[in-house]
Write a structure and sequence with these properties.
The protein has 191 residues and is an alpha/beta fold. It has one domain (2-189): Ribonuclease H-like superfamily/Ribonuclease H (Nucleotidyltransferase, domain 5, 2-Layer Sandwich). The protein is 45% helix and 18% strand. Strands 3-2-1-4-5 form a 5-stranded mixed β-sheet, sandwiched between helices. A hairpin with a 4-residue loop joins strand 2 and strand 3 (34-42). Helix 5 packs parallel to helix 7. The longest helix has 16 residues, at 94-109. The radius of gyration is 17 Å and the shape is globular. The two termini are 15 Å apart.
Length: 191
């Protein structure tokens, strides 16, 4: 199965007024346990990156000053996804945030929307009841990607889209390790 792990960093949370500042995707083949393709690029947004976003992502205005604009990068990204035809697009909170952000940008720039099945690791983690730490504010489990990674003892530098994607592949493999072992065994037996 070919999975396209995807993550975005943005200037904020409003799909109408905010911009994507980094997009990263890795096409991962579960049969071969190999990366097959990669797309990663920083984007020059149509406004200054807010200080809070710089603190979270580490992406500065200087870093993206000479990057291509959102339209150019997303045109290449959408073409990349259409060309590789993944079985699923996988992301953390993808169905609620990244996927909707990409859909809004497709609408803005008159691109064909991405019409691939998705797997959202946030939903999977909740369903599988990954043993994450509880937040001190709400007293509920924290299913942020960093919390899930910590539960699986995966260390990485969070909030860089390419680092998040690389970690997400490892998280996904841990979440599905038994499923993947069964599938590989069946394939070896010819089922």
């Amino acid at each position: 199965m070919k999975l396209l792990f995807t993550d975005l960093e943005t200037t904020g949370f409003d799909r109408r007024w905010d911009y994507i500042i980094e997009v990263a995707s890795i096409l991962y083949n579960t049969e071969t346990d190999q990366e097959e393709a990669r797309f990663h690029e920083y984007i020059k947004p149509g406004k200054k990156i807010p200080k809070k976003i710089i603190e979270i992502t580490g992406i500065t205005n200087q870093q993206v000053a000479n990057a291509r604009d959102e339209f150019e990068v997303l045109e290449d990204f959408f073409n990349f996804v259409e060309e590789i035809q993944p079985d699923y697009i996988v992301g953390h909170n993808y169905d609620t945030f990244d996927g909707k952000f990409l859909a809004a940008k497709a609408d803005t720039y008159f691109f064909n929307p991405l019409k691939f099945k998705t797997q959202d690791t946030l939903k999977i983690a909740r369903k599988k009841k990954v043993p994450v730490k509880f937040t001190t504010k709400t007293g509920r489990p924290s299913y942020r990607q960093e919390s899930i990674a910590a539960a699986y003892k995966i260390e990485y530098d969070a909030h860089s889209a390419i680092n998040d994607v690389s970690a997400l592949i490892e998280i996904y493999k841990k979440m599905h390790s038994k499923d993947l072992e069964i599938k590989k065994a069946r394939n070896k037996l010819g089922f």
